[in-house]
Amino acid sequence: MLTSAKSPSLSDMFTQAEGARLWPARLDSAQTAKVLGFQEHDIPVLVFHELLDPLGKPAPNARKYFAAVEVYGLGQDRAWLNKATRILYQHWQDKNANRTKNESAPAAGPALN
Question: What is the domain partition of the chain in residue ranges?
């Protein structure tokens, strides 16, 4: 009898992540960044653009937590990773362009009366 190779379930992949180290049910920004392969400073950008959904309804300045199962699933989704990467490229390109624009603006001299 032929048996087809069963693809691993999300929970199987989840338990095998990081050398079989079990992640907690909710991840902070640093852990989320590590799982997704982004920098920690990219996580607030992804939240702002609604590509990541924090648990609960945290205040804008509150510490954010994310569902580990959802984060690991997003890390396996090529289309989501592509979209997130493009958003981050655009965000940092815009931010750097604004910084360059502000630095190259001529300094206002003293007012002559």
Answer: 14-97
Task: Kindly give the pairing relationship between strand 26-27 and strand 66-67.
Answer: antiparallel
Q: Is 105 helix (H, G, I), strand (E, B) or coil?
A: coil
The tens digit of pLDDT for each residue in 25-72 reads 999 999 999 999 999 999 999 999 999 999 999 998 899 999 999 999
Q: How far apart are CA 63 and CA 112, in angstroms?
A: 50
pTM of the full structure: 0.69
Phi, psi at 13, each rounded to 5° = -65, -40
Whether residue 67 contacts residue 25, with contact meaning beta carbons closer than 8 Å, is answered with: yes
Strand residues in the chain grouped as ranges (E): 26-27, 66-67
User: 71, 32 in Cβ contact below 8 A?
Assistant: yes
* Residues 78/37, Cβ–Cβ less than 8 Å: no
Count of all residues that appear for the chain in the document: 113
Q: Which CA distances in Å does 64 have to 41, 48, 100?
A: 13, 12, 31
14-97 placed in CATH 1.10.1660: yes
